[in-house]
């Protein structure tokens, strides 16, 4: 059993490549053979037509659950599909053990439709602290990684988000209206103002990667499922970005966040978007 953060750091130094291998093998075995090959019997709805699950999601999560737990004895895995089957398993994020947070196919809707805009997300967390993350887009053969205090990388190249270019509209990816309350819809309307160019988001993990690469300025998301955000938030942080909830604090993977929240290329942009969401910015 891992006892403290220092020994987790040692684990990451020894085994980051093993985690990467597990993510790649899960995608090669369970996801890519089904890409653009899905049968109708392999696709189900969970909570409506925009919330899909496939055999690729289920099988890739099972693969990663076994592989990651074996790599780090004493750790637990919180995966999207396992939580859907038994919501009580989400509570492990609040516990003392190191937690692997897994989204086997982030962007399932895109995956089902044959779009390459999907990815596999893995994050290692303990006591609510994001320690490491892996974002793998198998159809694009892109792997982004981050380690707390060690930087963010895409295919081995260091990522620096940097501030947005002066004088142009902020590019902001926002939640799908189906996943927002009336109050959150009103908050998101704050982005429909001069100087901002909002659009609907795709895969959350790839939107975070776009921020870390400086291709997107910010997100405005209204849900807090840790598997969608944990990996990407660390990637953004380590690329020099920031994230804020409506109460002015950073997003917490343990939950209880004031929503919507934003992640952005730099702290100034995060403050600007958060102000618009809270109604304190210009309209």
UniProtKB/TrEMBL annotation:
Annotated catalysed reactions: a myo-inositol phosphate + H2O = myo-inositol + phosphate
Q: Which cofactor does it need?
A: Mg(2+)
Q: What is its EC number?
A: 3.1.3.25
Q: Which PANTHER family match?
A: INOSITOL MONOPHOSPHATASE (PTHR20854), INOSITOL-1-MONOPHOSPHATASE-RELATED (PTHR20854:SF4)
Instruction: Provide the binding site for Mg(2+).
Output: 80, 103, 106, 228
Under the heading Pfam families, the entry gives: Inositol_P
Class of enzymatic activity (EC top level): hydrolase
Q: Name one GO molecular function term.
A: metal ion binding
What keywords appear on the UniProt entry?
Answer: Hydrolase, Magnesium, Metal-binding
InterPro entries, A to Z: Inositol_monoP_metal-BS, Inositol_monophosphatase-like, Inositol_monophosphatase_CS
Q: Which superkingdom heads the taxonomic lineage of this protein's source?
A: Bacteria
User: Know the name of this protein?
Assistant: inositol-phosphate phosphatase
An example GO BP is: phosphatidylinositol phosphate biosynthetic process
Instruction: Identify the species of origin.
Output: Streptomyces asoensis
